[in-house]
Description:
- The protein has two domains: 1-41, no CATH class; 51-115, no CATH class.
- It is built from three helices and four strands.
- By secondary structure, it is an alpha+beta fold.
Amino acid sequence: MWLEEVSFDLIATISNVDLAAVSNLCSKLRDLKAFGLYPKKINTIGGECSVVEIDESKFGKRKQNKGHKVERAWIVGAAERKSRKIILMNIENSNCLTLAAFCKRFIHKKSIVFNGC
């Protein structure tokens, strides 16, 4: 999510981690990227007969439960059961074409995919 420039608040909310820890980790990742140590290509997860679960959620809330609704962000995620690798990405909408493109890009072709629907 850091590569997709998601806000620290949203990363902390999604991952259920303290905001200070997220800020610290993102600072370290930024340093790694500056030295060229962070991988530029995100590999696929899964493999032959490997189970990958995908799901999408919409995140956002009103400030102090008052006022107008704020724009909400769609987040799609995939988790490989055996290796426990995950990929999270911010997407524009959760239609079939967007989710299919996500699967094609990040999930190995021979994986067994479970969806939450």
